[in-house]
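TA notes, week 10

Several of you asked for a full example with nothing omitted. So below is the full record: structure tokens for the whole chain, then the designed sequence directly under it. When grading your own attempts, check the secondary structure regions first.
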């Protein structure tokens, strides 16, 4: 049965994902925890599949307009996908990586870091741009390895908390590729990277029987049309003001989550 409250939550998050590339985990997981009282493990498990399926729609739209930087995506995957797979295997053989007593705290901490990253993104980008122009050869040489490491970090955050693929990934890409990433290419590239990562990470929770399929269906009814609207709206204006507003909300959510 479709729940209208979940549909509205999915629509809000889907629109933000389409517009900024952020929110699949950073926004949805706290909403499920704080407003719907969903258990942390169920929130993470369901959100991973919500993010993956919602972002497939967004990625198709961005791919058709040629905005995805597949070279960067593949470099991120070299770090993120094997790491996520290893963590899923660890969960499947009985490692209790998602114990509820620390999971909510971990989500709050990652959401807080996400918010700070969004607010500081322009400053970090300017620092990276200055370094990129002053030391071009050295900066380009470190990009591939640093991108793989970024993928590993994102995989740990996403697999354990469902948070990070969008916001933290965006900030990392801004710092690593300050000249290469236009705002729309940044959103598209980050979304494309997140899809298989969320699917692999979500598989561990799926096998553990933690995904709430009824809730997921309601969320997707709202998010699928909304993410398409967000993608097309994002082509018409800069999403920076949305990011600032989202960061302010996430700061409050992070405090509420850990207290």
């Amino acid at each position: 049965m479709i729940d209208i409250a979940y549909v509205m939550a999915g629509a809000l998050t889907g629109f933000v994902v389409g517009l900024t590339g952020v929110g699949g985990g950073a926004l949805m997981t706290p909403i499920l925890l704080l407003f719907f009282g969903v258990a942390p493990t169920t929130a993470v498990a369901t959100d991973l599949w919500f993010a993956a399926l919602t972002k497939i729609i967004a990625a198709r739209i961005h791919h058709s307009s040629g905005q995805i930087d597949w070279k960067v995506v593949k470099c991120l995957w070299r770090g993120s996908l094997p790491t996520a797979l290893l963590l899923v295997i660890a969960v499947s053989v009985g490692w209790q990586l998602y114990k509820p007593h620390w999971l909510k705290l971990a989500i709050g901490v990652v959401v807080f870091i996400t918010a700070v990253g969004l607010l500081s993104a322009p400053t970090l980008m300017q620092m990276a741009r200055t370094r990129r122009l002053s030391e071009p050869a050295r900066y380009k040489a470190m990009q591939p390895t640093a991108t793989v490491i970024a993928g590993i970090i994102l995989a740990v955050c996403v697999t354990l908390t469902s948070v990070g693929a969008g916001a933290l990934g965006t900030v990392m890409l801004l710092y690593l590729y300050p000249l290469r990433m236009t705002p729309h290419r940044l959103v598209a590239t980050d979304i494309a990277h997140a899809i298989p990562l969320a699917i692999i990470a979500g598989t561990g929770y799926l096998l553990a029987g933690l995904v709430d399929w009824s809730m997921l269906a309601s969320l997707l009814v709202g998010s699928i049309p909304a993410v398409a609207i967000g993608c097309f709206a994002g082509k018409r204006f800069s999403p920076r003001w949305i990011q600032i507003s989202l960061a302010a909300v996430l700061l409050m959510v992070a405090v509420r989550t850990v207290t």
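The chain has one domain: 4-258. Use that as a sanity check on your answer.
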